[in-house]
Amino acid sequence: MQLEEFTQNVLPLRDKLFRYAKKLLQDYEEAEDLIQEVFLKLWINRVELSKKSSVEAFAMTVTKNLCIDRFRSKQYQASNTGIDAAELDLNDRGITPDRKTEQLEAVDLVKKVMKTLPENLRQIVHLRDIEGLSYQEISDIMGININTLKVNLSRARKKIRETLSSQYKFNYYEK
User: Fold this and answer.
1) Fewer beta carbons under 10 A from the terminal one: N or C of the chain?
2) Most distant CA pair in the chain, distance
3) pTM for this entry
4) What is the DSSP letter of 128?
5) What is the C-alpha separation between 146 and 12, in angstroms, rounded?
6) Distance CA 148, CA 73 (A)
7) 126, 81 in Cβ contact below 8 A?
8) For the chain, how many helices (H) and strands (E)?
């Protein structure tokens, strides 16, 4: 992979990789530093990179592994889910203040529920529902088979849904 191809295929992933690292590390500056390491590793391994079926999945895996390395080296404990009201763009919908407050409370509740999930389930929900990755990409990143991934995602969503339903006393699937 030459510089032009690297610039075209890898550099546009920066924002997605940064959000993922920031979610895992819970630190803006540390996530920025880590992303520089990620791009350095990707550049050094650019020959192997061109052989990968999904450059994005490989880059996400490198990011995840470097985050894990940082956790281990600093005994770092992630406690936040990374869901932010700004990411959900609640401010630009022209909604009433009451509805906006309800939505912000729902986001906070989802954060709390996600904190109770095991780390692997949190990562799966984040990668699928926030980052929008495909099952295959998540499977490659997490190193689990797709059926296991789907079961885990279903369990995590069910727990989130049940908590929201009990909090707001309604079922999201009823119309």
Assistant:
1) C
2) 56
3) 0.50
4) I
5) 26
6) 29
7) yes
8) 10, 0
Q: Which long-range contacts (CB under 8 A, 24 or more apart) does 16-19 make?
A: 16/56, 16/60, 16/131, 17/59, 17/60, 17/63, 19/82, 19/130, 19/131
Q: Report the candidate in 63, 55, 60, 2 with the shortest Cα–Cα distance to residue 36.
A: 63
**DSSP H stretches of helix in 75-134:** 85-88, 97-116, 119-125
Residue 164: name the closest of 111, 91, 118, 85 by CA: 111
List pLDDT tens digits, range 18-59. 998 888 888 888 889 999 999 988 888 888 887 888 888 889
Q: Is the dihedral of CA 30, 34, 35, 36 positive or negative?
A: positive
* Burial class, 1, CB count within 10 angstroms (exposed 0-12 / middle 13-18 / buried 19+): buried
Q: Which amino acid is at 32?
A: E
Residue 104: CB atoms within 10 Å: 13
